[in-house]
Specification:
Elements: E1 7-8, H1 16-20, H2 25-45, H3 48-51, E2 57-59, H4 70-77, E3 80-82, E4 88-90, E5 94-96, E6 109-111, E7 115-117, H5 126-130, H6 139-165, H7 167-185, H8 191-219, H9 222-231, H10 233-249, H11 253-261, H12 263-269, H13 278-283, H14 287-300, E8 304-305, H15 308-329, H16 340-364, H17 374-383, H18 385-398, H19 401-418, H20 424-432
Parallel strand pairs: 1-8
Antiparallel strand pairs: 2-7, 3-4, 5-6
Domain Major facilitator superfamily (MFS) profile: 93-436
Keywords: Membrane, Transmembrane, Transmembrane helix
Membrane topology: Multi-pass membrane protein
């Protein structure tokens, strides 16, 4: 009789993982794809900081004054206004009506009809292309909200579709939508077109990323889910730290948009190597396809299996029993609020997600507004993701989820409060402590 631990007898079969292994080479391939997809998704979520950065702008000079320098034009025609630190700066939105007058203190001002931009660092942005300044300076923030709207819309739709048609087709479907919209976005001819395509980018990306997460959790053993759920986040952190480097090298927004869409070509290409979820196949009665995937997983992971027919029958019976239990329960979203205990837990989770998302993206999407170099601020914010994930994993493993969650949220809240009296030159470091 064989004594190899990889040898599997039919009487040993209790779970799918008893056959394919809990986390082997086959699962690592899926994890790698999930890792890359989250990194690529991060680039587009945070891209607006470099598509629409804070760039200096002022009222455009008439052609008759084109022969004078920018400093001379500002001194001649642009009024000074108070800045946040009480210093006088040139207005970005006003110009003297009669700037040839020597009595500027008595001269009235008017709003700019057009603008000039400081393109010394960024060669082109959506800000200067569509004049998203002054009374239109809220539009970039609205564009980010629309992106998140695409993400939220996809969450409701992609989950239902992946349960009905399988994980693999929805991953490809989302990837194609993303790839087409991401590249088309670089050729937008209007801000409206830009926003529609960004919405579709978010729709496709979130559908792909969330479905890959579901697939990953379905094929790894329970004891690996906590650690891989955190290790998976390192893909986001890696994308976060690389993005400012891309922005430093690529200073035209259209080229930048094309570059950050390239990884999705790789993701769509390696889709052919992505397996379907054996659990989904078994629950939908696709026994032959399920056996093919399970056999391949067992082979790649070095598992020796005997009597496939009996084992597949056992797995099929178990999956049918679980599926029947789910159907009998007919769980809906409202079940989260039926009992006091579940209602309390659900509302707490909703509150935690709202607070964390509100704070995290509020900080991450506004590093341009902090003191110092915005690229360095962004890079520091990204690098802090790595120790944050490591500390989170250690605390969850040794302290537990409940105390860790409470402690880290208190630390984040206190860090935010402590930034109030801190100088702008240090505020980015203190704020990003909230990532923990």
């Amino acid at each position: 009789m064989k004594t190899d631990e990889n040898y599997m007898r039919q009487e040993d079969t209790k779970e799918l993982f008893d056959v394919i292994g809990y986390f082997g080479s086959w699962q690592r391939r899926i994890f790698f794809i999930a890792f890359i997809s989250l990194m690529a998704h991060c680039w587009h979520v945070l891209a607006m900081l470099f598509l629409a950065p804070n760039i200096d702008h002022w009222c455009q000079r008439p052609t008759t004054y084109s022969n004078i320098s920018t400093d001379q034009w500002k001194d001649l025609a642009i009024p000074r206004v108070q800045s946040k630190n009480d210093s006088g700066i040139y207005s970005s939105c006003l110009v003297y009506k009669n700037f040839t007058s020597h009595m500027k203190e008595e001269n009235s001002t008017t709003a700019c009809a057009s603008w000039e931009y400081d393109n010394s660092f960024y060669t082109s942005t959506i800000i200067d292309e569509w004049d998203l300044v002054c009374e239109n300076d809220w539009l970039p923030s609205m564009s980010t909200s629309l992106y998140m709207g695409g993400f939220m819309t996809s969450v409701f739709i992609s989950g239902q579709l992946s349960d009905r048609y399988g994980r693999r087709p929805i991953i490809l479907f989302g990837g194609i939508i993303f790839l087409a919209s991401g590249f088309a976005c670089a050729f937008s001819t209007s801000f409206l077109m830009f926003n529609i395509l960004r919405f579709l980018v978010a729709f496709g990306a979130s559908g792909t990323v969330l479905t890959i997460i579901i697939l990953l959790l379905e094929v790894i053993g329970p004891e690996y889910r906590s650690i891989l759920g955190i290790c998976y986040q390192f893909g986001w952190a890696l994308g976060y730290t690389i993005l400012p480097g891309v922005a430093f090298l690529v200073k035209k927004w259209r080229h930048f948009q094309l570059i950050i869409s390239v990884p999705w070509i790789l993701l769509c290409s390696i889709w052919w190597f992505l397996p379907e979820s054996p659990r989904w196949l078994l629950s939908h009665g696709k026994v032959k396809l399920a056996e093919k995937e399970i056999r391949n997983a067992a082979r790649v992971n070095g598992k020796i299996v005997s009597n496939w027919q009996v084992i597949m029958a056992q797995l099929m019976t178990k999956e049918k029993q679980e599926e029947e239990m789910k159907r009998n329960r007919q769980a809906t979203f409202l079940d989260l609020f039926k009992t006091p205990n579940m209602r309390k837990k659900s509302l707490n989770n909703f509150l935690f997600w709202f607070v964390n998302a509100f704070t995290y993206y509020g900080l991450s999407l506004h590093t341009n507004d902090m003191g110092g170099n915005p690229l360095i601020n962004f890079f520091i914010a990204g690098t802090l993701e790595f120790p944050a994930n490591i500390i989170g994993f250690i605390l969850i493993k040794h302290v537990g989820r409940r105390i860790s969650l409470m402690a880290l949220m208190v630390v984040g809240g206190v860090a935010c409060l402590l930034t109030v009296p801190v100088s702008d030159s240090y505020v980015s470091l203190a704020l990003k402590a909230n990532s923990y």
